[in-house]
Amino acid sequence: MGRVRRVLGRPIVIGLLAVGIMAGAAGLYWFQPWKLWVDDTVREAAPAAAAGDARGGGPRTLATGKLISHEHETSGSVRILELPDGTRTLRLENLDTSNGPDLRVLVSDAPVKEGRAGWYVFDDGAHVSLGKLKGNKGDQNYALPADLDLGRYRSVSIWCDRFDVSFGAAALSRG
Q1: Where is the DM13 domain (predicted)?
Q2: CA 107 to CA 128: how far, in whole Å?
Q3: pLDDT per residue over 89-146, tens digit each?
């Protein structure tokens, strides 16, 4: 017992222990492994026309897509809706993916590729972040910037900004 105290009392051992604890804490912060077991479900209603909107009618679908898996199993669909007032919304429906650190919703000019070839492409060219993913499951809406050219952006990715990898993506089809 006395020998253990002598070894643990040495400055080099104390320094190594301190570095190990700090590295462990940094690893936990960086990887956030607990998110693998925590689901965030969001159930937002689809946007609807304002009651007093003179143009009437409901949202019009401008583009659709089906999510495919990349780094993590991902499923669901994407719709881009235009409301009678001209505002546009990207809607994720029946989203089901893994939770992770720093997940974002990106619209990109990159083509959607299956397998590992599609994991890293969505931030290479033109892309716009619509903000943090609200939840890894469910239905959610993201406002599109008024000046976003839908002719230029042809895909949507659930993007992990921390590790620069796509969890899943959808090619957008106009119509």
Answers
A1: 60-173
A2: 5
A3: 999 999 999 998 899 999 999 999 999 999 999 999 999 999 999 999 999 999 999 9
User: Alpha-carbon distance 17 to 20, whole Å?
Assistant: 5
Protein fold of 41-174: Immunoglobulin-like (2.60.40)
List the structure tokens of 7: 């070894």
Domain chopping of the chain, boundaries: 2-31, 41-174
How many C-beta atoms surround the C-beta of residue 74 within 10 A?
21
| Angle, vertex CA 60, rays to CA 58 and CA 64, nearest 5 | 135
pLDDT band at residue 37, thresholds of 50, 70 and 90? low
**Residue in the structure block whose two tokens are 């890293």:** 120
Give the helix ranges, DSSP H, for the chain: 2-8, 11-31
Q: Which two tokens stand for residue 117?
A: 């070839």
